[in-house]
Each structure stands twice: as C-alpha cells, then as structure tokens.
Amino acid sequence: MPQSADQIKDHVSLFKEPEYQEMFARKREQFECPHPPERVAEVEQWMKSWDYREKNLSREALTVNPAKACQPLGAVFCAAGFEGMLSFIHGSQGCTAYFRSHLSRHFKEPSSAVSSNMTEDAAVFGGLNNMLDGLQNAHQLYKPKAIAVGTTCMAEVIGDDLQAFIAKAKQQGSVPEDFDVPYAHTPSFIGSHVTGYDNMLEGILKHYWEGATREPGETLNIIPGFDGFCVGNIRELKRMMGLMGVEATIMCDPSDVYDMPSDGTFTMYSGGTPIEAVKGGVNAKATISLQEYCSKKSLTLAESSGQEVAAFNYPLGVAATDEFLMKVSAFTGKPIPAQLELERGRLIDAMTDSMAYVHGKTFTVFGDPDFCIGVTRFLLELGAEPVHILSSNGSKAWAKKMKAIVTASPYGKRAQVWPGNDLWHLRSFLHTEPTDLMIGSSYGKYLERDCGVPLIRLSFPIFDRHHHHRFPIFGYQGGLQMLVRILDKVFDGLDAQTNIAGENDMSFDLTR
Ligand code: SF4
C-alpha cells in the first residue's frame, strides 16, 4: 500500500504512486472509452476558435459554471450579520450543507445554519411538520435570539407558505409567541445569492420595523451588501465612519462571526448588528447601500418608511470612495476629516508610482454586479483597459450602467460587457480575445490554467487561498490593497518571463 497509518500521504503525492497511476490508466481504458489522442487534440483546438465561440454564445437552455450561487446562500450570509440570529433553511438538508460549506471554505470559519430537512413525504404533503419540529429543536438546542427562515427550491416548488407555517409554529408552542422569526422566501430558480441577501434583509427589517412609530433622527443605516471581503471591509467602513464622527448602524455585520479567535471554545454567535440597533434603524435619517444590486427591496422599504436613501456600487479607489464619503457628509453635515484626505493622497501617490506597470494592461473582471462596477472604475482610474466584464447575475440594466461607465473613459473603448453569461462563455472569450490579467473568484483558476490568463483572486468565493478577506478592498485603503495585489501579479509574471540564466535574464531586474 502506498500509505499506512504511520505514513499518511497528501493526495498531491499519493496519486503519483504506481498503484494509483495503474488504476487511473485501467479506468481510462476500460470505462472511459477514450477517443484517439489526435482527435481529442483536434477538438480541443476547435474549442478555442471563433467558430466555437459563436456556437457557445448561441446556447440558450444550458448554463455551465455560472459565477453565482443561489438565493438561500445569500440569506444565510445575511442572517449571520445579526446578533444571535440563527439561519433556518426550510427545505433540503443537502442544500443547507452546501451553504454552510461554501461559506466555511471561503472564510475558514464555522458557518452555522439549520435545516427543516424536508424529504420525499414533505415534498408530497408539504413541509409544515418539518417546520414545527425544526423550529422547536433549533430554539431549544441552539438558544438563538432570533431565527431567520429562508427556503430552498424544494419548499418553493411545492409552495409552502412561511408566514402561515411560522404562525402555526407559534400557536403550537414550537417557539414562544413573542419570539422573533423573520423570514423571506428565497426561491433559487430566480436571481442569485445577491437577491437572497436582499430578500432576507428586507424580511428582517420588515419584521422589526413594521408597526413601529418612526421618530426621525440624525443617524445613518449602512447596508454593506453580500461581500466575501466583509471582514476587512466592514472594519474599514467602521474606521472611516469613526474618523468622520458619524453614528451609523451597519445593517448586517457578519465581520466577527466570520473571523473568530481561537480560544479553545466554540461560540456559535458573535458580534452582528445588535437587535436594538436594528429596531432603532427605522428612525434613521437615511439608509445608504454600498451595493445597489444587493439592496433594491431593502432600500425601497427604507424609503417607504420615510428615510432618504442612496446606493453605491462597491465603492473603492478614488472617485467612488469620494462619492460615498461626500454623500455621508451631506447626510450628516460632518466634514470629511484630514486623515481621510491624507489617505486619499497616499493612494493617488501609490497609483502614480506604479502607473507604468498597470497602464495599458488589459483585464477581465467577473463576479457580482456591484463588484464588477467597483473594480472596473478603479481599473479605469489606473489607466488599465478592461476588455471582458462578465456578471452571471448581472441584468440588462446593469449592463447599460456598466457600458456607460466604460464608454466615458478612453481606457474603456475595448470593453465588452457580458450580463447573464457564465464561465464557459468566458473561456471562449479568453481563447479568442485573451487579456493580460483576470480578476475574480477561485473558480477562475481553471480559466487561468486553460487560457493562460493570470488570476487575481478578489471576490467570493476564494477557496484555494487563505485570509485575503481579512483585508479591506473598500475605500482608499481598499484601493491600495487592490493595487498591490495587481502589481504583485504583474511583477511575478515579469520575473517568470525573464528567469532563464544567460538567455533572457538581462531583464530579471532586482528593482522594478
Ligand atoms: S439551487 Fe436549489 S437545489 Fe440547488 S442548492 Fe440552491 S436551493 Fe438547493
């Protein structure tokens, strides 16, 4: 045997052992019925052609590797941002395991969520009993302050009515009558995790705001939106608001629960927006969203309660951060402090120092709609040229906005905006019109290998690199962090191209 209890091998070396190599060869011959290698190579080449790209773009009834997740994942993320709130997913156990593992793999932290575990009988007769038992178990076992209920496809297809089920559960004593159970229907066959975030946030705000008498105040609510970098970004946001002396409630703050210290004990709930602050949020002067496409319904709710509202698109870099801070200043009357002006100047200095290495470089950007807008704006500020901007969960309205941004810049003339396309489309784009670099999630690593376009991991999910989410990419500091990540990739590429001694290493420079 290639390994034993005394000598455990990682799969990287284990699968190179002769036993495994022989097994793989046998499997290929006996079960895979492979075509001759020449035919495989021929088809492989064709799949990189414009001809294949046209065929790929004409497919209608099939999505391959979309850069998005389903609604309930966004709902679980949203509920994690509130004090003592437990996610309860009404539907399949397997879906809930996927949401937990997806979030855990990205944040490298436990991600708690329970499921009503619907199976075949519930699919036929409805999931009421699962809800009654599940709420009771969750309440007694995990002692949450509130339970936020979302749904999977299964519950939505059979049409379970959450409002009626929760009322029944309270009537029957599964949870006390006055226990908080906000909810949102999160059907996965519409929208994406971004929609699920918005639906759940709207559900939570409705639960705590409806029926309250609004007493207009001077505070702000800030909705950060679904964000794989929430740990670093929300801390940066709080720091900036602190420097301005602005009293703001972060509506959904999972920065602590996704960044727990190791102290020998497991804590299920940590941090989160305090429930009293959520209740008080109805009195805010204004609600600002940092991600327009994550908060359409929530902002409509805030507006209907009498608040002013404003939405941004993942503000990072110079102009987008300026706009955000000026809006905060306009709402609160607080000036932008000298410290933030200093940080702005330092970012511009860093961008100028490194301009020669980024200016004119071509980029592919893929991810959520707001992320794509924020990153593209920053690239244009750097004089970089976005060529493919793809958002699987981007709408036609998003594409129109994106096109207006790129056409307003001399560096955006070559940009092509791809709403609703997937990463298999992106493969065709990169084979036919490659770019120097690509910004996106870990799922881009297959494109990097296949198309030879270096990937900078800056969105959700990042599974194969650790801890980047602890550093901000919002604001001026975020722009700096993003600039460094881009430059490191550029310099690593330059070094790799110039490292053959005596051949090309006259450019293997110590100083870049
Ligand atoms: S798309 Fe539907 S079936 Fe798939 S994980 Fe999401 S809720 Fe579950």
TrEMBL record:
The lineage of its organism: Bacteria, Pseudomonadati, Pseudomonadota, Alphaproteobacteria, Rhodospirillales. Belongs to the NifD/NifK/NifE/NifN family. SUPFAM superfamilies: Helical backbone' metal receptor. The keyword Ribonucleoprotein does not apply. Residues 70-488 form the Nitrogenase/oxidoreductase component domain. It catalyses: N2 + 8 reduced [2Fe-2S]-[ferredoxin] + 16 ATP + 16 H2O = H2 + 8 oxidized [2Fe-2S]-[ferredoxin] + 2 NH4(+) + 16 ADP + 16 phosphate + 6 H(+). Its EC number is 1.18.6.1. GO terms for cellular component: molybdenum-iron nitrogenase complex. One of its GO terms (molecular function) is nitrogenase activity. This is Nitrogenase molybdenum-iron protein beta chain. Gene3D superfamilies: Nitrogenase molybdenum iron protein domain (3.40.50.1980), Nitrogenase Molybdenum-iron Protein, subunit B, domain 4 (1.20.89.10). Tetramer of two alpha and two beta chains. Forms complex with the iron protein (nitrogenase component 2). Keywords: ATP-binding, Iron, Iron-sulfur, Metal-binding, Nitrogen fixation, Nucleotide-binding, Oxidoreductase. It comes from the Bacteria. Binds 1 [8Fe-7S] cluster per heterodimer. PANTHER family: LIGHT-INDEPENDENT PROTOCHLOROPHYLLIDE REDUCTASE SUBUNIT B. It holds the Pfam family Oxidored_nitro. Its cofactor is [8Fe-7S] cluster. This molybdenum-iron protein is part of the nitrogenase complex that catalyzes the key enzymatic reactions in nitrogen fixation. Residues 1-56 form the Nitrogenase molybdenum-iron protein beta chain N-terminal domain.
